[in-house]
Inverse folding.
């Protein structure tokens, strides 16, 4: 029955989300290098966001056109953020 | 949701080319969520730029300290409410009204719990001297989290209306479609919080560790 199959999938995704959230909090309290901590946190957050979008918002089961319609605009902000952060850091270094 | 479920056509609606069985409402909600997502992205980018340009973040380590454990509980509750939302949709697809009402009610309760937690957190932070205009850290924190909080409030109201409609309405494709659209908004609210939790709370500041 498709409903039961879906529920199993939903609960699996729930487990992943909780596990990744615990990992995130664990990472913050480790003494790792700052760059490693930030990279790990960003990667875990993006993975969680993707899991919600693909499985809870059912993007995985939509057509390619709808996925592209949603996906392409979401690529632009991170690129823009990196450019602006580099520029801001460069200004800070000049001071 | 499996392929069979998304193939539910809405009576009277012609499929939109290239969008498969997605209804007009679902496509419209997705387009709205993209624009809303870009709005949140703008706020998070502003945070990133202010932070990248700051010699120390947070500027006032004594006052600007966020509670990670408390916020982690709120994050867990919001994740749970996303799960109850999809379980509510699955129940509706199975024609199980009792389960639908139970899961949808749990989703609304989760949203209310999150909002109450946010009010509690704000009162605590302000009591410790972290106010909106104190510095860039506090300003970006309150703007981003309250903007998200308004979305949670909107979602709670939206789902409460869907809960009321679900009491008597026939659980046909049209109502399931409305539930799915409401679910998209609620999952979006959860998705945004996942990013806010990481970028605002978790990414520490080298000077103070930014963690309490």
């Amino acid at each position: 029955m498709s409903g039961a199959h879906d529920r199993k999938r939903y609960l699996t995704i729930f487990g992943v989300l909780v596990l990744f959230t615990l990992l995130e909090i664990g990472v913050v309290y480790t003494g790792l290098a700052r760059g490693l901590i930030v990279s790990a946190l960003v990667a875990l957050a993006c993975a969680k966001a993707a899991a919600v979008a693909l499985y809870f918002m059912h993007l995985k089961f939509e057509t390619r056109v709808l996925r592209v319609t949603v996906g392409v605009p979401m690529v632009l902000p991170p690129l823009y953020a990196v450019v602006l952060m580099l520029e801001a850091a460069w200004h800070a270094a000049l001071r | 949701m499996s392929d069979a479920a998304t193939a539910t056509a809405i009576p009277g609606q012609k499929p939109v080319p290239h969008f498969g069985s997605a209804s007009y409402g679902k496509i419209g909600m997705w387009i709205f969520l993209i624009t809303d997502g870009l709005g949140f992205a703008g706020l998070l980018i502003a945070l990133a730029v202010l932070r990248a340009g700051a010699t120390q973040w947070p500027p006032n380590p004594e006052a600007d300290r966020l509670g990670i454990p408390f916020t982690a509980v709120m994050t867990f509750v919001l994740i749970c409410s996303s799960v109850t939302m999809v379980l509510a949709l699955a129940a509706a697809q199975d024609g199980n009204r009792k389960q639908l009402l139970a899961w949808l009610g749990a989703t609304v309760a989760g949203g209310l719990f999150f909002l109450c937690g946010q009010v509690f957190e704000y009162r605590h932070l302000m009591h410790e001297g972290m106010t909106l205009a104190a510095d860039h850290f506090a300003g970006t924190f309150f703007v981003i989290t309250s903007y998200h909080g308004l979305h949670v409030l909107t979602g709670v109201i939206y789902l409460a209306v869907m809960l009321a409609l679900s009491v008597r309405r026939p659980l046909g494709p049209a109502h399931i479609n409305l539930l799915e659209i409401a679910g998209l908004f609620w999952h979006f609210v959860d998705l945004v919080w996942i990013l806010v939790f990481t970028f605002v709370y978790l990414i520490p500041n080298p000077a103070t560790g930014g963690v309490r």
Q: What stands out?
A: Chain B has one domain: 22-208. Confidence is low (pLDDT under 50) at residues 1-8, 206-212 of chain B.
